[in-house]
Amino acid sequence: MAVAAAVALAACDHTPAAAPSPRATPPPASGAQPATGPITPQQFLQPEDIGSGYRIAAAAGSGDWTVEASASLLHCPAGDGTPEPADKHQRSLVRGSPQAGDSVLQYVARYRPGDAARYLRRLSERIGACRPATGRSISVARHGFAGDQALLVAAYFGGGSAVTHVLVRQGDLVTEFVVKAGRGRSILQRLGRTAAERLCDGGRAC
Q: Region Disordered: what ranges (predicted)?
């Protein structure tokens, strides 16, 4: 009888089992997060940043003025998995006639989280590994002078042809500019710091 009673009590015990804890949804990978915020004209260098007489031109040409173009012309090894920007805009500042060549070419690009820092790091490594032909050269002449990251890249193509590229990062934003009229490196670094401030657009974009 005692055994039967125990069986009966067990059969009547309907205490529900504890419900399994809901599984937390994993956060999306940082690379999947879209870059946000439109690029504005205020995030570019302004005419007064360069000097008197400069004005805004419609565009900055075909893009063959960039450090990527210089590296290709000097036969630097191709970048490995170079991140692509999510958004990119170009413009130029000019003084006098276009034929005078007194201009500033610039782009501003927004990358997905983490990609901007990765791009500049890989670019620096690519340039460091580049071995141009005799009489030509490319190097990172200065770094870390503005924003979160900054590179001043000096390229020499021989025959007196040279160009200096300035690249600055603030967060997920990168800008690159070239000043066609000859400017010393100290002036270019100062413009790099100004460009870093412009990228933040009054603190709204950084």
A: 16-41, 78-97
